[in-house]
Amino acid sequence: MKKRIYLLLHWLIILNFLVQILYSASMVFFVVRPEGVRGPLLGSAKNMAFEMMVTRRLYAIEFWIAFSGLAIYLALTEFKVLFPKKEE
Q1: Does any domain span residue 88?
Q2: 56 within 8 A of 32, measured Cβ to Cβ
Q3: Is 39 left (phi over 0), alpha (psi -120 to 50) or beta?
């Protein structure tokens, strides 16, 4: 029973990271953008309002924090098994 609770918690943490990554990526690429712009900003970034640029950057930072958190969590929980310690 205790192992199932830990496994459920483990997958909830991973799911939380994935949802956060998808949410912040969708905000950067699809929601917070100037009118008439699709895809990367390129030259239209020069004409973008300061508040919108800051909002996009904050969502991008949120994306990288969630992505890094997931990578660190997976390294500590999943990939640690792949690299056993060498005993001398």
Answers
A1: no
A2: yes
A3: left
Choose among 24, 22, 13, 28: nearest CA to 70.
Answer: 13
pLDDT of the chain along its 88 residues, tens only? Answer: 888 999 999 999 999 999 999 999 999 888 888 887 777 778 778 888 899 999 999 999 999 999 999 999 998 888 877 777 777 6
pTM over 0.85: no
Q: Would you state the pLDDT for residue 61?
A: 97
Q: Which three-class secondary structure string do you get for the chain?
A: CHHHHHHHHHHHHHHHHHHHHHHHHHHHHHHCCCCCCCCCCHHHHHHCCHHHHHHHHHHHHHHHHHHHHHHHHHHHHCHHHHCCCCCC
The total number of structural domains that make up the chain: 1
- Full residue range of the structural domain in which residue 40 is found: 2-82
